């Protein structure tokens, strides 16, 4: 049988290497077939929290339509973009994939509205922040192994998940930097602007006409029409969005290559000495990307239809949370066991944050509607 192939010798000198990993909190034997970052990826895929992403909101609440992105498909698109860029930059694709697949695992139901509701409910009680929650899930809450809590991921994957460690006491300066994790942050941004454009247009909440004033869109449209004159509607929009991703990815690769050289990043240690961006868009694309984000915020995320759905989501979560706190005997033995360890509020927060959109809606009906 062929054993774990040594692909790591082919990586760029500044890539992370599982053979030089700082290891896992609970030491484990190496696997004969898979490197440690591959095992991290596999543990994430097999986790319960990962499967729940399927029924959690990205922008559109899950039951609004079968073709809209959910947290799961957003996660897969992020992973695809991160892996493509990792490969061409000589970085560790398995680490980029593991971090991508777990990057949104801590999100509650109902997208950002769910996050705001949990923040409000947990104010003064340790707070809530989805990146910190992602870490809590993989380090504490997933129960899959008899001899340790969580998934026992490698140090590098865990550090890659520490993205906005502001609210739950994780100083940003503690982050051990890898270019793979930095790459995932940008891949996430590339994925969501492009797929939110797609979903927004598909739903009819976004109109195409005002996009002509958004530079990146206008530029990509010109390119598409140069090859397919007269193309219109959905076929044209699909190509424009494809082109948007392509521009952002190619620019990231070119700009990052330049920055790796300019900042003299020759090995992974060199990266620890700087907080400056190394994986980045050029100034031009950064401005255009920001313009597109502003457009989406104004026209999609703050669209009255989206706001109404998210307001409703917040009401569900607040109702559930307060009801459980007032009468904890409604909670399952597992949640009550967690409450003994970490306090009732934290245990209820974990429980509610873990819910999918549809479970939260069903549970709300069960608790509050007289004929359910
Ligand atoms: Mg994301």
CATH topology: Hypothetical protein af1432
- Helical stretch tally: 16
CATH superfamily annotation:
Hypothetical protein af1432
**Cα distance spanning the termini:** 57 Å
Average pLDDT figure: 92
Instruction: List the uncertain runs.
Output: 165-173
Biggest sheet details:
none
* Helix/strand order: HHHHHHHHHHHHHHHH
DSSP strand tally? 0
Shape: flat
CATH architecture field: Orthogonal Bundle
Name of the CATH first level: Mainly Alpha
Bound compounds, please?
Answer: magnesium ion
Strand content: under 5%
**Rg (CA only):** 22 Å
Helix-residue proportion: 55-70%
Return the domain count.
Answer: 1
Indicate the structural class.
mainly alpha
Kindly list the characteristics that best describe this protein.
single chain, 372 residues, mainly alpha, Hypothetical protein af1432, 59% helix, flat, binds magnesium ion
Structure write-up:
The protein has 372 residues and is an all-alpha fold. The protein has one domain (9-306): Hypothetical protein af1432. 59% of the residues lie in helices and 0% in strands. It is built from 16 helices and no strands. The longest helix is centred in the middle third of the chain and has 30 residues, at 233-262. The chain is flat. Mean pLDDT is 92; it is low at 165-173. The site of magnesium ion has 5 residues, from helix 3.
